Amino acid sequence: MRRIRGEKGWSTGDSRGILPAPTQPIYNGEGNTTQGEASLAGLGGVASGSVSEFFDELLTKEQVFAIAKLFVRD
Where are the alpha helices (DSSP H) in 9-72? Predict the structure, then answer.
């Protein structure tokens, strides 16, 4: 969907870009720059925004339900 809307296919930080506000739960936590207790922000001269693009974050059950609600009708 991001590419259809003219955006790159991945997010930078917690930004949903031009997507509607209800999609924010999908992007919460995407600004993470720490992996395995090591901060990678600025490592090797790479900008923090770019570092946040490196990994997919684990989701809690609550986060999964918040995202799933976007696609399920009551």
Answer: 24-27, 48-51, 61-68
